[in-house]
Amino acid sequence: xxxxxxxxxxxxxxxxxxxxxxxxxxxxxxxxxxxxxxxxxxxxxxxxxxxxxxxxxxxxxxxxxxxxxxxxxxxxxxxxxxxxxxxxxxxxxxxxxxxxxxxxxxxxxxxxxxxxxxxxxxxxxxxxxxxxxxxxxxxxxxxxxxxxxxxxxxx
Length: 155
Prior knowledge:
The relative contact order is 0.16. The longest helix has 17 residues, at 5-21. This protein starts with a helix and ends with a helix. A five-stranded mixed sheet has the order 2-1-3-4-5. Strand 3, helix 4 (86-95) and strand 4 (99-104) form a beta-alpha-beta unit. By secondary structure, the protein is α/β, with parallel strands linked by helices. Helices cover 39% and strands 17% of the residues. The chain has helices at 5-21, 46-49, 56-68, 86-95, 136-151, and strands spanning 28-32, 38-43, 77-82, 99-104, 129-132.
């Protein structure tokens, strides 16, 4: 883990809170360049955008690609509060993201260490460096609270 990982993850958590405030599953993401500059920030918005692909990671990768006028994002670090799913792993591979840092594991759909271990297949032409568990408790707590609120009577 590098010295700035917690600070960037806190920004991803702030994005996740924005998603929660919009009644979206609270996942946030941040993309940073090799010099430590913020390129893009985003949060889950499949409901608001009526777009099943509008996961936080995809939102950020799209914004960054537009900003940099390049669909390749080498040397970047993607911070996301939840372990990416298969779709998001595919997108970050195609974008050539250099490093992935995530918070909480996702036992049902996580594609790095949980439900699947896609990078262990050896089938990808690109593989980012992966760091997991950064602020995992805080990232997980936000998700747990969100779903507890959803399940409570009167919701």
